[in-house]
Amino acid sequence: MVQSNRNLESHFQIPKIKFTQLFINGEFVDSVSGNTFETIDPRNGEVIARIAEGDKEDIDLAVKAAREAFDNGPWPRLSPSERRRIMLKFADLIVENAEELAALDAMDAGKLFASGKNIDIPAAADTIRYYAGAADKIHGTTLKMSRDMQGYTLLEPIGVVGHVIPWNFPTQMFVLKVGPALAAGCTMIVKPAEQTPLSALYYAQLAKQAGVPDGVINVVAGFGSTAGAALCSHMDVDKISFTGSTEVGRLVMQAAALSNLKPVSLELGGKSPFIVFDDVDVEKVAPLALIGILYNKGEICVAGSRLFIQEGIYDKFVNKLEEMAKTWVVGDPFDANSHQGPQVDKKQFERVLSYIEHGKREGAKLLTGGNALNGKGYFIEPTIFIDVEDEMKIAKEEIFGPVLSVMRFKTVEEVIKRANCTNYGLAAGVMTNNLNIANTVSRSIRAGVIWINCYFAFDPDCPYGGYKCSGFERDLGMEGLNKYLQVKSVATPVYNSPWQ
């Protein structure tokens, strides 16, 4: 592992923070209480800005604005082609402001600036474009009824939606929830994570600039236990879409059930298996396995955190992992040479380090890493444990950091059983050149996304979500649109029809 101290600040001017208030009914406003909270730069632990702290009263105002915009405003009543036009303008504005948006996520979340500017932000615009293209293709069906009746279905927007988004992908989570909800004709309140509110506020003003009417998108920054809880339990919210931990997901469901029984979609934690069979090219697959855990400093719910390697190539594969880890650059996310930035905040930093200590105490062999980097900020070395046992804490619980558990296996049947021996079921990677093995394993693993000979193969058209404690319903794809739609059936009698 190489630590980089260089950064790009001499070449790139860090933008001034423009938006720190709540965005309600098309305007930036202070919170009702006047309270603010600090958003912290994980590169150095310093305060970036003070953000208006939303609470129940602010959620009430945002819901009121969204309800008015849905019940009486133009957005649900616009022609789908007009919604599409506005959303395409929104996407164009995202691209035009890619550098500033990437900088906000780099400062707020420790994400790599170059990757954000060149990959994440353009991909976010593409997600908005995908759902813009779907806006005028929302159709019901004609029913062939058994009686003398004419029947058809209508797909209608579900109403006012509450989006609760996490801190690890502030941009992507914003667009994959807001995009389909906009296309469906819904109005919404976005509650960004308190660690990363900056880009969500910026996106709100870009949407207004694109022509999204007031009240359609509202952003209330604040804490989960106050603003988030108020949103999830609000009697005038018609739907909650939540991405975050399994623990909080349970609270979201409880709040929805105890209020107005609003439907909930959850994308939660994961402990995904990355399975490598001994017929693969180690030189090609080992880098994919390393990226599978270190991408976004391990702060990704589909991280391939359980690496199963077939015994025939175990030693060779482990040696390659160690070799690559030694060249992995951890440093300032504004440094173009950095592969990994800091963990999002001090709490997550300490959580990851505590899991590393658990691994040591449980007897896992530390191959490389295992330490925090000296100096300011929340930087952790890429950490690889080998000879890990399935019952160890580091193999069972989601760490959400750059910590890999490596295990060996013998047979296809064995690895399927071990891969499924988890409370989670979000994703899995299967690396093999044997088509029969690929088909058998991909159909046997209980997870929502299976990647064969690839990893992190996200696409706007590819649904994404989990089994078991990883949640239910899907983001992305047309399934990501359908969850913001209600199905209404209409039936009328048909008299003296010449045919059935």
Automatic annotation (TrEMBL):
Domain Aldehyde dehydrogenase residues, every copy: 28-490
PROSITE patterns (alphabetical): ALDEHYDE_DEHYDR_CYS (PS00070), ALDEHYDE_DEHYDR_GLU (PS00687)
Source organism, top-level taxon: Eukaryota
Active site: E267
Record Pfam families: Aldedh
Keywords, alphabetical: NAD, Oxidoreductase
Gene Ontology MF term list: aldehyde dehydrogenase [NAD(P)+] activity
Record InterPro entries: Ald_DH/histidinol_DH, Ald_DH_C, Ald_DH_CS_CYS, Ald_DH_CS_GLU, Ald_DH_N, Aldehyde_DH_dom
Assembly: Homotetramer.
Family: Belongs to the aldehyde dehydrogenase family.
Protein name as annotated: Aldehyde dehydrogenase domain-containing protein
Organism expressing this protein natively: Anisodus tanguticus
